[in-house]
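Support request, priority: normal
Reporter: lab tech (M.K.)
Component: structure prediction queue

Hi team, I submitted a job for PT repeat-containing protein from Candidatus Roizmanbacteria bacterium GW2011_GWC2_34_23 yesterday, and the status page still shows it as pending. I've pasted the exact input below so you can check whether something in the sequence is tripping the parser. The sequence length should be 389 residues. Please let me know if I need to resubmit or if it's stuck on your end.
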Amino acid sequence: MINKKIAFVVVFIVFILSGVTTFSFFSAEKSLSFLSPIAYQAPTSENGSAEATINAEPKTEECPLNGQLLSKTQRSIWEAQRPLGIMIENHKEARPQSGLSSADIIYEAVAEGGITRFLAIFYCQNASYVGPVRSARIYFLKFLEGYGQNPLYAHVGGANTPGPADALGYISELGWSSNNDLNQFSVPFPYFWRDYERLKNVATEHTVYTSTKKLWQYAKDKRELTNVDEKGVRWDKGFSPFKFEDDAKASDRGKVVKIDFGFWDNLASDFGVVWSYDSRTNSYKRTNGGVAHLDKNTGKVLEAKNIVVIFAKESPANDGYEGGQHLLYKNIGSGEMLFFKNGQVVKGTWNKETEEDNIKFFDSSDEEISIVRGQVFIEMLPIGNKVNY
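Reply from support: The job had stalled in the queue. We restarted it manually and it finished. Here are the results:
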């Protein structure tokens, strides 16, 4: 009888533990709770003398995403992989983030409650630490769809309330779930990990990190996704790149030295953005919430060559999400836009006809605007927001 009781207790404990794991796996919006089956990893670095040597090589090769000139060795690496979009949060406790300075293109928009989030697109450069990683939102997915066939998408869960903002449902509709989608709940340690030391004394949801190298390796080994898929289809089939141009000559650079805007007025002090133009480097440095916005990987201020402010209709999803309010942005179609480069501003329109089209930018004469070689930072604001410059 005693042995039977012991056996019953053992089975009961196993059942409870199994239930905890199952709950953790499927609870997308609560994906960063203490139940999340994600291991801790102490701070490490993949960078070493080899990468330093690569970075010191002559910059002769054009990155297909933003035109930045990089080395031949870097080109040999990116040509064997496909674009990777990673969701990175911008809660105050998540700063300074890791890896943003290595992204080719970055999109920023409000995720919920006035708190913005980034979709960082990596292809031509590597980042050994990227994060903190957070959950998927449907409008970021629609930006990512413009990057060819089955771009990789890394996130930790996502909006999954039935309705128009159901990001996880949309991923399933796209056929990405068991293919190019890299949800932390289906991708095991060590491809995602928690680091409680990188940002001190922050809530658990701000501790998930990843690595571009590890994710590209996982996609290759587990999903048969390199620059081609298992059927031999190249990722860039149907991809429409931007037009690129070199830096303007010093004498041709403009005098628009400050770009200042907010997303939601009531949170301007925490999430207001200022981009300051440096004519010597022909680039813009970022301040967020009144503080210089750093990349923890480099210790340097985030810096971009192109700042594009697009205006899109913002509306509530009204899907009954208990955690707050999921949002929708009408980022398919066209709208007004401000394009800042070379110390100048160009007023025009943005256009993204379908989900599969890459977003493009046009001046008042409907001529496509070229990208200055280097990082592109695309800021999506609600229609009616004011931008000071």
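Confidence is low (pLDDT under 50) at residues 1-36. Helices lie at 2-26, 49-55, 72-78, 138-144, 167-174, 212-223, 268-271. Let us know if anything else looks off. Ticket resolved.
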